[in-house]
Amino acid sequence: MQFAATRIITDDVDDLVAFYEKITGLTAVRLHPLFAELRTDSGTLAIASSATVALMGENAAEAHANRSVTFDFLVDDVDAVYPALQGVVETFVNEPTTMPWGNRSLLFRDPDGNLVNFFTPATGEAQERFGR
């Protein structure tokens, strides 16, 4: 088995794609006007329109309703990235903070309210976990 992707359901695919392209520097692959993917070597972030929910089953998903999942992105230097996000991110949850498990972490919300974490391994043990 291979984990392939995480998908966000949204009412505005274009807006969310533009946001993730800005914060990641990636270019989305648009497979359809209702569906896009931001692909990395370690996984894919898919963005799909709420209009696709009916194809999955009635009420299978709901846009703007996530309160339990965080999208984690490993970055080279979270402290250096933080100022660059000031004009892009509307809601920061915290400033760069060192977590007890050794990552330096910056939490913010995307335009749909989903929690996004940019992090950098800060301790030797954390750096070793991520091959740094």
Task: Provide a descriptive summary of the structure in words.
This protein is of the alpha+beta class and 132 residues long. The protein has two domains: 1-54, Signal recognition particle alu RNA binding heterodimer, srp9/1; 68-132, 2,3-Dihydroxybiphenyl 1,2-Dioxygenase, domain 1 (Roll), CATH 3.10.180. The chain is built from four helices and nine strands. The strands form two sheets. Strands 5, 6, 7, 8 and 9 form a five-stranded mixed sheet that branches. Strand 7 (97-98) and strand 8 form a beta hairpin. The mean pLDDT is 96.
Task: Please summarize what this structure is.
This protein is of the alpha+beta class. Helix content is 23%, strand content 33%. It is built from four helices and nine strands, in the order E-H-E-E-E-H-E-H-E-E-E-E-H.
